[in-house]
Design goal:
Layout (H helix, E strand, L loop, with lengths): L2 E5 L6 E5 L6 E2 L9 E4 L11 H11 L4 H17 L4
Antiparallel strand pairs: 1-2, 1-4, 3-4
Length: 86
């Protein structure tokens, strides 16, 4: 269910509602009027780099990616040693 933005024609209140896809109007929470039309709202693009972009950035900065892998293997070996019943 998407979140749509609506604007009340009676009081001018703008609000967002979690409604079924394709819903064209909703009741205003401020004044209770029905039929507040859906607005075209913008969205914020994310700035999260993809895995490939992250690797390229790390390569440019000279970061060693094996550090996390080695820590994971070391922690896994320690947990296996501490495993109860062995």
């Amino acid at each position: 269910m998407p979140i749509y933005e609506f604007e009340c024609g009676e009081c001018g209140e703008r609000f967002e509602e979690l409604v079924a896809a394709g819903t064209e109007s909703a009741a205003c929470p401020a004044c209770g009027a029905t039929g507040a039309p859906r607005r075209l709202s913008s969205f914020a693009p994310t700035r999260q780099p993809t895995a490939a972009q992250r690797r390229r950035m790390e390569d440019r900065r000279g970061i060693d990616r094996d550090g996390a892998r080695q820590r994971f293997k070391r922690n896994l070996a320690e947990r296996r040693e501490r495993k109860p019943g062995s």
